[in-house]
Structures are given as structure tokens and as C-alpha cells.
Amino acid sequence: MTADSDSEVLDIAVLVGLQASGKSTFYGRCLAGRYALISKDLFPRAARRKQERQMRLVAAALAEGRSVAVDNTNPSPEEWRPLVAAGHAHGATATAYWFPPDVAGSKRRNAARTGRERVPDVGIHATFTKLRRPSLADGFDAVYEVRFDGRGGFLVRPDTDLRGGGEAREAREV
Fold it and tell me: Which of 3, 92, 113, 154 could form a disulfide with 118 if both were Cys (CB 3.0 to 4.6 A apart)?
């Protein structure tokens, strides 16, 4: 399912990128209303077993027939593999939305944040060291690259570096 599709395909959208890369804004502008939002950032700071809680929420939403978007950094297969498996176990497609890293841009946007939303720069660097581009070989049914369009929106295109033979198609603005 793509960011502008109107079909009712059950999907788990896994947002993959650095902190302050635009993932939450993308969710709000492109997926909200069609996808239930699940994010560890929404849990109380002192919450325990955040991964288990997240997986319970994902499974519950999918079991109810609701598509879900998981808005965390999800930097590597260790984080996204259980999400893909949960989606497939519920008959959903698994879509990765890849936000290519721009450390300087993330640090700049992060500096404008306040309170709990702002993360220490060291967190951005730590995520960068783990960040890996998702591919079809990781079990995703589709992988899209998401970039800012320079006008307040996003440019979303099928990822052409799928390491599995994806075909290039035209990008679209959303």
C-alpha cells in the first residue's frame, strides 16, 4: 500500500530513519486516518518492556483489521524483522518507508525541538551507526524512499536500490 493509495489492503508501515528525519511529520500528513499510529515515543518514559508492548499493540490492531504505522527509528533488521513477521502473520503486507540519513539535517531539525521531543545529538549519531536501508530481501512487500520536497511536503518513490531487483518508477509528491 502506498502513501496515497485508497485501497483497503491491510498493511504494516515501518518507518525507518534517524531521529528528526521527518517520519512523524510524514505519518501525520500521509498515513494518519488510514493507519493506527504505534510509537514507543508515545509510551511513558519510565514504561518497561516497550518492545513487548509495541508488539502487543501491533498484533491487536492488525487482528482488528486496522493497518498500522510503526513510527520509531527502526534502524536495522533486529527492529523490523518482528514487525514484518507480525504483519505477515495477520495477512497484512509489510511496507518500509526509508528516510535516507542526513545527519546534519536531523541535528538541525532536532535543535528546534523542545522538551521530550528533543534527543541528545549523541542519540542521532548512535542510530546512524546502526541504520541500514531496508529491502525486499528483508521480507518487505514494498520499500519506498521518502525525501523532503523542499516545499513542505514529501517526495515518495519506490526504492530503486532494493538489492532484490526492484524496478524504478516515477516519484510522486505527497
Answer: 113
What does pTM read for this prediction? 0.85
Indicate the residue type of 40.
K
In the chain, what are the helix, strand and coil shares in percent, each to the nearest 5? 35, 20, 45
Helices (H), the chain: 23-26, 50-63, 77-89, 103-111, 121-130
Strand order in the sheet with 11-16: 36-38, 68-71, 11-16, 93-98, 142-148, 154-158, 172-173
Q: How far apart are CA 75 and CA 56, in angstroms?
A: 20
Half-sphere exposure of 17 (CA within 13 A, CB side): 28
The closest alpha carbon to 68, from 104, 93, 99, belongs to 93
| pLDDT digit string, tens, across residues 100-137 | 999 999 899 988 888 878 887 888 989 999 999 999 99
Give the N- to C-terminal CA distance of the chain in Å, as an integer: 14
